[in-house]
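Lab meeting, action items carried over

1. Structure of the two-component assembly. Owner: GW. Status: complete.
Input record:
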Amino acid sequence: MSVIRSAWLIARKDLIVEARSRELAYTTLFFSMACVLVFAFAFVVEGRPLDDAAAGILWVAVAFAGTLALSRGFERERQSETLRALLLAPTERAAVYLGKLIGLVVLMIGVEIVLVPVIGLLFGAPVGRAPLLLAALLVTGTLGFAIVGTVFAAMLVRAHSRDVLLPVLLYPITVPVIIAGVRGTAAIFGPEPNFEAATAWLSILVFFDAVFGILALWTFAPVMSE
Amino acid sequence: MRVANRLVPVLLVIAALMYARAPFMVDAAPIESTMGLVQKIFYFHVPSAMMTFLAAFVCGIGSAVYLWRRSKTADAVAVAGAELAVVFGLIVMVTGPLWARKAWGVWWPWGDVRLTMTLVMWMVFVAYLLLRRFGGPGSEILASAVGVFGTALVPFVYVSVNYWRTIHPSTDVVSTLPPEMAWPFRWAIVAFLALFTALLTARIRLETNRVALEEAYVALED
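Predicted assembly:
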């Protein structure tokens, strides 16, 4: 069985589990809304959101909700030692990694599809101004976050205090994703949209995804072997 | 290892003598015309920044070798590198704001690429040490992945923070230094390098001994 096919089977398994319980989709979505609400109290002054607040709140909500989905998604695999079963499966470790990654990215993009219009509604952000560019920023940013997050969440499954260690490891390493995501989105949302800057940030995200994607595929097997 | 045992005290004596002489050289160096007296912190700030990134690089190499080869020495090198990155990074982040307050009027200039970048990298290596400390058994392998990712992160943090905004004095400041300023600066770099090598060697030895002792305990219990 090819790597791509095994990865797809693992992703499909995750998505079927999720479609039946909808646990992650509901909790992650509601959690991201709660983040938006909390940040609204900080960044809306005299009834008006501060400059670039919408872009910042969007990405912080994505990062926080993503961490929640990561730790819960792998907790599920830990409960009955199913991660070990996955690693014992007669396929390459890279396929296991890719499968988990695809499952997570699909879930997070689903959350973002609801989150973005809400941000537009609550903060008056022009989400329809450059929909393709915004979608590209969100997809590449989410992918970058998930690429690093999946490696760390998978390796922390067996570690102590994994719930605190995941964000502690993940946020510093995804700083470039957050900067590029927030600044790229802010360049689109700003009063004078700067699509050139947004495209430049997009290219940084693509480059990040490529380099860390290769690094993740490379490190996943040695990290996950005893 | 026997060479390393002798190397540490020798390097420490060299470093101590050089550090003792350094303040006099810094004092004798001319006062920079635009930044004034505060610029003198540069003689300690920049070498510690260099040591931070050298330590990060050492940790990255050690981590990569440990991840793919499982060499215990490489893991000891990685731990030593991570700890030194945290220590020297702290010096950078104390001296940097002292300078920034005088030069730019703010303690933490967010627009400064290198200071912000040092903070991000410092947090990566603190996370590395937290993982090793609290991650339980097997966390060395996990930490080595963090070391590899952290080192690959350096150019990305640089580019993204740089693009975000920059006000740091440009890099070519070193090559354009007048000789009266370049000498104390080089002197400080060598002093820091001697201290760095001594600490690195001692820490690697400590870690190797710790692992050997732990293995001996486990063997005794079996």
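2. GW to write a short summary for the group page. Key points so far: The two ends of chain B are 29 Å apart (CA to CA). Residues 2-24+44-221 of chain B form one domain.
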